[in-house]
## 1
Amino acid sequence: MNVTALSPSLPKSNLARSIGLILLILVASILLLAPLLTYPLYLIKILCFVLFAAAFNLVLGYAGLLSFGHAAFFGGGAYIAAHAAKVWNLPFELAILAGTAFATIVGFIFGAIAIRRHGIYFAMITLALAQMIYFLAVQMPFTGGEDGIQSVPRGYLLGFIDLQNITAMYYTVLGGTALGLVIIWRTVNSPFGHTLSAIRENETRVTSLGLKPERYKLIAFTLSAGLSGFAGSMKAIAFQLASLVDVTWHMSGEVILMTLLGGMGTLIGPIVGASIVVGLEHFLATSGLPITFIIGLFFVVCVMMFRRGVFGEMKHFLQRRRA
């Protein structure tokens, strides 16, 4: 008698869910214990860029919009949050909310202007609009010019958790990043997210069904901008600094690099890409090697070997094995 025939096998969908749950618990355990293994401020930087790359992936990977201006939302949110915390003496939560609200409003305005253009025209319009924010950051008195806004107070979370404690700051940023990723996951897996994917694949067919692609793309762009500002706000408070680095076009190029390197159109890809880029910058900082050249070379090699990105190729390989 065949014993295995008597025991029902676990359905593939349930097996995949079980594996996913185990991996989620494993990752959560690593993140909770990570401050004991390495410097928390380095981990905070990774978390902020993970959320930034995931937010950018919402428009590039799912809506098919290549924006060269997302640094305006990331850096703009950082400046507003830093100013609100230092000059207006707002508590941590309201300072973060102010930076996020600013990025959301600016994202809606930029999207309303650029969303009707396609391809390189859309990219160039977003770049031009982002450069306006950069020049404002250089010229406006409250931004501090090339010095930026320094010595930003971290304040207290919920009025009693001292965020001067770097470990407390890490867990706060970890919670904010997790919240942002959940919002992105829920958006992508909703009917709205499925419509975005359909627009990316064939916008003409979606229009023929009576839907308005511009409206969906504008909502996605605005949501992406708000989450980017949320990431920038947390970074400014955690590092107690808002500078021109966060609002330059180089930052827009860096988040594109993170998304493409990890694998656009996936939820895990931007997380992998952001971790790789920030990790390379961190470990090469004291090596004396040209960091930009090394990261560019690494990107070229990955593009040639992993056309879907690092995680995208892994996912494709596992899907072929399963088939």
## 2
Amino acid sequence: MRRLSAMLLTLLLPLTAAGQSVSSDGTLADQLLARPPVQSNPAALTPLWHGRDGRMLMLKAERSTNAQALRENASLAFHPVDAPSVLTTGLQYSLAPNLQAHAEVSQHSWVNQPMRVLGSEVGATYDVGRYSLGLSVGTKSTPDNSAVLPRVLPGAEPGVDGLSGFDSSAQLNARGRLALGNRSGIDIGASVGRIHLLPGNLLGVNTLDQKQLSFGVDHGSLSGILVGRTMQPQAGIPGAYTSDRRWNSIDLGVTWRLPWRGSLSVGAQNLWSSGSPANTPVGPEPDQSRTPYVQYHQDL
């Protein structure tokens, strides 16, 4: 029994040390632990370590709808209605008073469907209060390549961006924010990346290049985002399409953070689009039909 108690005390020593390092200069840590979630950002931040020089390691956890995830970090391959639930977990480390690095993983999942898309991202953000600039690289992939992604809405193509043969993607992201006050701000984002499709997909090409621009505005509990995308086959790769074939679209969404820790999002996928959505001899092209949506999310 004594040996068991000694072993438990030994295992708890690192946690005790971590608690002491947080509380050694615990003013900032206590403020973070006692601070209620901000209406415009439902992510939970928990301090893990706080150094005397101001450096801090924090754990981030967030569950949101895909429409909300687009507001915080516009996803290159996803439209607002492509996945009802997004779970994000990661670490955030303060390298300097105005410089933070982060590493996180995410999961896009569907209700009553076994399919999921896993993502990972690493990046850094320079924040001076009124404005901030962040850069990151990320990937997304399907753990089971043999399965077809589920149908999102009746009449809409199943998959990501209307691509049922989605396999993986990699992207470079940039995001800037200008604060207009304590409760308002403007966000601008840009992403470039590449989408890989499963072999033998109906589109007839294996790789697509995609670019994206986003513009967001928020004031208090209200936020809106406008996202423009362009997608085309990779240049120099044989397939059913040439590199001058493009599909363009614009998404629009508005989210209202409700007083009871819920949120309501309304908008339209493919509010404007160019490129023929009709089936071709090689199979269906990416679905660009206009799709309005209403999503409700409750934070637990």
## 3
Amino acid sequence: MKAAVMHDVNDIVFEEVPKPSPKKGELLVRIRSTRVCSTDVNMYRGRMPGAFLPRILGHEPAGEVVELGQEVSGFKPGDRVAIDPLVYCGKCYFCRIGMNNLCENGGLMGREANGSFAEYAIITPERAVKISDRLSFDVACFAETVGSVYRSQCKARLLRSGASVLILGLGSAGMIQTQFAKLAGANPVIGVSRSRWKLDLALQLGADVVIDANKEDTAEALRKLTPHGGADVVIEAAGVPATIQQSYHLVRPGGEIIQYGIGPSSVDNINTYLQYYKELTIYGVRAFTYSEFCISTKFLEDQSIKIEPIITHKFPLKQTVEGLELSEKQPGKGLGIVINS
């Protein structure tokens, strides 16, 4: 089969590799679409440890079942599936209490195990969620992001009807955060970006107000929109030091920060005095549980979360590197980037 194989930092080769065969208790899936994630880019650039090289990256796929290993039931060739990329043992303390996202022995497809920038991939049946014919593979491969965003907002006690919500960063995840905040009844939902076209898209997807960070001071603009010294909930969706630091200043006293964006390095100058003085609650978010992943496919099926407007670029498998580099080098031009196998 063809695959985009990472051999070293900055070295991905599109090449022929052996097609895997499913063992007992496994499924062979023909990968159709994979969303490019910043985690893939960071591993490609050597900024995130964990990949055991050589490795096929890619961890947000959708495809169709082509072959079943022994003792697999509930699936048949031709079933269309979204794929949960988390690898977990099912036996450790966290798995036993339903938090498989924190598995002590787990990992991630495309990092500890080969991923989906390939024509085929092996998965276990419990990580495959059937999807209907009306849901395209290009949309279904966003189920991972939708699941993690859903988990992040379920954590926040203040994110409810009438809450003011500020979203820092309007990438794919930020656009999905915008939609979930509106579903929760938040008002106003305020999006912040330096890209005018992303601000316009956020308005189309439900934002009540947007702030162009190139033209306005975000803190000053926010003071005019919220009466209590900041937003009830700030969702940091960019994962860069400047917005992570900024979130502490933009949330109101007694408010909440959802630290959704992740970066490969530590952040200096976090003002912990503000955390004390404003009595803030800060939520970290790591992926999702299996049940939340299943729920994410339902949001996509009924189109309560819209993905098509977010997809800006599609690349064939042989151009995986181009997709990764567009995501990194020209973030203002690309949004949802999909690799079609």
## 4
Amino acid sequence: MNKICPLSVVDLCPDPTVPGSVANAQMNPKDMAFQAIERNMEEIAKVGDSIFYFAELGMQEIETSKLLVQVLRDIGYKVETGISGFATGFLATYGSGKPVIAVHTEYDALPRGSQTPGVVERRELVPGAPGHAEGHNTNAAVLVGAAFGIREAMNKHRIKGTVKLFGAPAEEQLVSRPFYVRDGYFKDVDTAFHVHVGDQLSVVYGLKSSALISVEYEFFGKSAHAGNNPWTGINAADAAKLMDTGWDVLRKHLPLTQRSHSVITDGGIQPNVVPDYAKIWWYFRDASAKSANDLFSKAKKMAQGACLMTGTTYKETVMAACWPNWDNRIVAEVVQSNIELVGMPKWSEEDQVLAKQVQKAARIKEVGLKTEVTPLTLAKQGGGSSDSGDITYVVPHARINFPANISGTEPHNWTAGIATATSIAHKGEVTGAKVLVGSMLDLMTKPEQLIKAKEWFDQELAEAGIVYTPLLPPETKPPLKLNLEEMEKYRDQLKKFYINVPIQFK
């Protein structure tokens, strides 16, 4: 009697013409993917460590993007580079048909974040250089590890569906993903995941960040000799300062949910020349897209007032704009089931010793690395932002936090760069890749979960009365020169630390 297999998303019937297909059918897809990830732990670590030493700032992730694109092509993905005009962004695709599962993450470093890994005291690789003082290098390693694991499971179990992997430049400047959404890259996606470094293995659902609009204001005046005839000049730097001061006066009348901050990036050349040009860069954050946009409207008036007081003119340029993150409960439940399946890494004594040394130096309780997974909880909305927010309003979404750093290190501080190219990071990367690939497989093979996620998504948006429209203006283009000068100061000095090893998944 012929064996009859039911029609389903997954065809587990062995094909006698395919070598090893009987053995493949006996191992379930998750176990196969997990084994593929474990087998390639060293290759995954090479990806994360290589990017750590590239230490590239947002929009300048040239070596990072090149490495990721090459590795993904080597393992069988079709890769489109330069999407939405981002030279260091990419879309890697594998498989065909429905469902379409997207994963996106960032890989940019931070200014002055250089730190020697595994060393508790401040020891820069290159003085003043950028570095991964949050650990975004590990995000990319998780992305690649899961990419290989899902490919193995899809191939050997003939799983139908499409995987889309997005490389997202300049998260620290909150730039790229709203462009991807605006330009239609998520139109056919059924669900999406974001992977991000942390000190725990966790997922939440609901609102957890602020909307943000990033704007540069340029003021134009007239130069003059500041000693001989300053009355003939028009001081552009004064306009920038007055805008800043005016906003500080207004701040006490703004909602408690707002967060607004600025830096004057160009305030003149030398004191005896009246500056004819100045530039101030603002972040306007609030709990909703509408309230962030209200702040932006007020800022326009501040700029206009500064010009009236000084006789200058101004130009505003929106650099980036994003909605708050809002994650899907059903997708989060799928992730949580995989978190509990995979569990925390098995930390060595050396891992725990390093963690406690870092905590001691930070003068906090020496508890070491976490050993228990975190329960699923409702998110708490905070003042931070991520450019991934827009994605969460166009497709059911969850963010997976994986444990590749130490409790007590402060993101955007050099201490967060101590662990992210050590065995702590390597074990956390493997754990994150497993949770991600397990969650992807559940949604690929259990279509009822995708239906429930979409129903929750539609209902919650309808009840909140939210209709998504991009905050990002349609004419805005990627700021391709962002961080260019700063990165070029250090790129050649950093090259001597590149590890330059072959990466070959098997």
